[in-house]
Amino acid sequence: MLDPAKIDVIILCGGKGKRLKKIVKDWPKPMSVFSGKPFLTHLMVYVAGFGFRRFILSTGYRGHTIEKYYQQHPASWQIEFCRETKALGTGGAVWHAKPWISSRVFLVLNGDSFLRVGLDKFLKFHLVKKALLSLVLVRCCGKVDSGKVLLGSRQRIIGFEEKASYKPNHFDNAGIYLMDRSVFNHMRRKESFSLEYDFFPFFLKERCFGFVQKGRLLDFGTPDRYAYAKRHWAKGLV
After folding, report:
1. In terms of DSSP bridges, do strands 218-219 and 37-38 run parallel, antiparallel, or are they unpaired?
2. Nearest CA to 8 among 138, 172, 189, 181?
3. pLDDT digits over 111-159, tens only?
4. What is the CATH number of domain 4-137+174-208?
5. Which of 30, 156, 164, 184 is most buried, with most CB under 10 Å away?
6. What pTM did the predictor assign?
């Protein structure tokens, strides 16, 4: 099995967080304070607990704020900064980070959500399946602004549906991915594009699998979900 210390971790933290503008003001959303520390720090601490040691922070909006903070608060792991000069979308951000990625397999996470998942088991799943792309999935929680992932036999992803009525094989995308470096050969080389809408649905003919995880996905992309996440974090319920 691959050593997690040799696997690069990309954290997507370049969004403007427009729906949280009144709450976070001009502060980057991943730097929102949870229990005395930026959420981004909590996320890296959790991931580092599984042995990952090299983080590539894909920044954009007020990226200098994130860079300055971690230059002043160095961690015990390596942090690289890959800043977008304009919004690239989740897919464009991963493509933009390509020169920073040195590992054959790399982990990608959204910087504004959290799910307690065994990343060691997820990595083993990805390798056993010989997957090119693996997604962490959770049971649908009723979010109306999320697409549904359809899972077939042997945990193969067979489709994506937007605003679909619930079916037993429907899951929510947790925003945690393992990718083989060869995925870059299949990406459309556009400046800005989305992983979820412009890439994943057209990559299904390749080896794509879904790793189902129990638990509640904390996504603080809206004011209501932000308040919910803060309450649960403060109570230690994450």
Report:
1. unpaired
2. 181
3. 988 999 999 999 999 999 999 999 999 987 655 556 689 999 899 999 9
4. 3.90.550.10
5. 30
6. 0.91
